[in-house]
Amino acid sequence: MEADRIRTMLRQTIPILLMPFMVVTAVPCLLLAAFAASDHRWSGGMTRGFFQFLGATGFLSGLGMFLWCVLLFAKVGKGTLAPWDPTRELVAVGPYGLVRNPMISSVAFMLLGEALFLGSWVCGLWCAAFLCTNHAYFVLSEEPGLEKRFGAAYQAYKRSVPRWIPRLPRRR
Fold it and tell me: What is the pTM of this model?
């Protein structure tokens, strides 16, 4: 019984360490080191404090949503975020009821939060590159694959839930 719990925990943890951790931690550290001479930082004052607060809030919000998505993948989807161990059930609850890709959105919030907190244009560009790359990947690969795996259920989900930006509630 204990061995099964450890296997499940590793199954969930390894993809997080390999993918989002690399995107949010390793790549920004490498970029900050490589562009240290030209990457401008906040010099001080109230503007710095405001943007650092905004950045920390964005980062923590993104982290919270990311962890929620990982839990939903495990509990509802019976899988992980890793392509080699995908969900076996379509996840359409929680943040997945508002947008189709809240996990990517949450990582983008973390990256944007880092950029604002550090005052780093290099981290801001990395966030933009991450979003553009993922948009192309989802349109060209992920969504067609989900349509094949989940069929009509995914097509109905796709029609009712926007890809990135939640719909505003309709006024009556």
Answer: 0.87
- Residue 19 amino acid letter: M
The 3-class secondary structure across the chain, one letter per residue, is: CHHHHHHHHHHHHHHHHHCHHHHHHHHHHHHHHHCCCCCCCCCCHHHHHHHHHHHHHHHHHHHHHHHHHHHHHHHCCCCCCCCCCCCCCCCCCHHHHCCCCHHHHHHHHHHHHHHHHHCCHHHHHHHHHHHHHHHHHHHHHHHHHHHHHHCHHHHHHHHHCCCCCCCCCCCC
For residue 126, the one-letter residue type is W
8 A C-beta contact, residue 77 and residue 88: yes
151 conformational bin, left if phi > 0, alpha if psi -120 to 50, beta if neither:
left
Q: Render pLDDT for 101-140 as a digit per residue (tens, 0 to 9).
A: 999 999 999 999 999 999 999 999 999 999 999 999 999 9
Q: What is the pLDDT of residues 17-48, one digit of tens each?
A: 778 889 999 999 999 999 988 887 766 677 88
- Looking at residue 12, what is its pLDDT? 66
Report the alpha-carbon distance of residue 90 to residue 78 in Å, rounded. 9
CB 81, CB 70: distance < 8 Å? yes
Calpha distance 119→73 (Å, rounded): 33
